[in-house]
Amino acid sequence: MRIAIIGNSGSGKSTLAKRFHVPMLDLDTVYWERGKIAVQRDPAEAVAEVRAVRRTNKDWAIEDCYASLIEVALEFTPELILLDPGVDACIRHCEARHWEPHKYASKQEQDQHLAFLLEWVRGYYTRDGEMSLQSHEALYNSYAGPKRRIVELSTGEERQ
């Protein structure tokens, strides 16, 4: 089983990926410089790491909001899942998010960035670039492999 999951911050990508019980790659860990906030890693290094995970594991789930890195994962024809629960659900999920030690030194540090994260979540629907709904939909629509769009993670409700 190979799965690539894309969507807004707080859409439930990590939660869904864990349900598959396969090696999981959160693309935040390869897109950004380790130990630094909002410092992008060399894109070639990030792409190489995504390709290494795909080659090393027969089954995997790769998830996050970076269309360019999800596109690299699509070279192996996984199922592509676009999570699209809407802005209100994403905000609720971000507000209830547990501490992410791979991103922040403490829960307090994480909470200090919450206001920025919530604005980022709201902007997903109107911004341009690879971390936007527009980019995610374009990737989804152009992908010829297996795919589904999920609008309600708790029920698995899908729409085509």
Polypeptide structure, described:
The protein is of the alpha/beta class and 160 residues long. The chain has a single domain (2-159), classed as P-loop containing nucleotide triphosphate hydrolases (Rossmann fold, 3-Layer(aba) Sandwich), CATH 3.40.50.300. The chain is built from 8 helices and 6 strands; from the N terminus they run E-H-E-H-H-E-H-E-H-H-H-H-E-E. A 6-stranded mixed sheet has the order 2-3-1-4-5-6, sandwiched between helices. A hairpin with a 4-residue loop joins strand 5 (147-152) and strand 6. Helix 5 runs antiparallel to helix 7. The longest helix is centred in the first third of the chain and has 14 residues, at 43-56. It is globular and about 40 Å long. The two termini are 21 Å apart.
What brief labels describe this structure?
alpha/beta, 160 residues, 8 helices, Rossmann fold
